[in-house]
Amino acid sequence: MAEVCVIARSVARKGREDQLRELLWGMLALTRVEAGCKLYELYESSSKGRFYFYEIWESQAALDQHAASPHFQHLEQSIGDLVQEPFEINILEAVLIGAAAA
Length: 102
Description:
The chain has one domain: Alpha-Beta Plaits (2-Layer Sandwich). The chain is built from 4 helices and 4 strands. Strand 2 and strand 3 form a beta hairpin. The chain is globular. The mean pLDDT is about 95.
């Protein structure tokens, strides 16, 4: 099974930065102990209120289980009023060049 890398982005509504930071921070401990979670980090951009999760999952199945977890469901239900645009989840693929691409 191939690893799955994810970058998830959320942008806080003006004045809601602290609330969004707290909600996202609350995901760390619960997610890091999930089966198949290899890395789960939260970053904030120098542009205040822009948050990024960088994630590495053992497999797509592990990521799917995360998406079905109660804490992820809570995040999806709670984030709406805190963000100025939809929560964005990006599944990444390595860009290979030369011999590595063959």
